[in-house]
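Annotated sample (chain length 191).
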Amino acid sequence: MTSRTHDLFAFASLVTVAVNYPPVSLNVTTLVAASVGSIVGSLLPDIDQASNRLWDLLPAGHVFGRVLKNLFLHHRTISHSLLGIFILNGALSWLFPKLFNPNFINVQIIYYAIMVGFISHLFLDGFTEEGIPLFFPLKWKIGFPPIASWRIKTGQWFEKLVVFPGIVVYLLYFSFQNQKNLGGILKLVVR
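Output written by the structure step:
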């Protein structure tokens, strides 16, 4: 899937999770950081590509991207696996208490937002022709449907004309159906 599709699906996933597991408290900083965090999380599995949009945000980012690409061997290895989820969990659990002040931002919400984005990326890539090596370092790739030729080709017409618009329709429908719950979440920010 393209980064645009991953971004939108991560945001739709975050909204879905927020409605089903609403936060007890929320401030503007946490709301914005969670929204950005879900998108960053959706791009993290492709950090092994020098062309990842995350590298555009850093000075000399493309240089770091090329170095990391060599560490990951090739695209869709550890970063698209359960091991990658475990490593990201450990890294965020270690980094966030040092990085964020819990008096100003809810670190747990940001953590969940990034993890939702990361896992949503893996979920979508499971529908692509290439599949994902969920059990890396085992070379067996998981995909749905099981027959690779029936899966989505990244950036092609089906993704652009069916998947992306489908996510938009889902997000609008879900938001309309759950406007009371979403309003309740947004009221937490206004308090």
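Annotation: The CA atoms of residues 25 and 94 lie 23 Å apart.
Annotation: Residues 3-190 form one domain.
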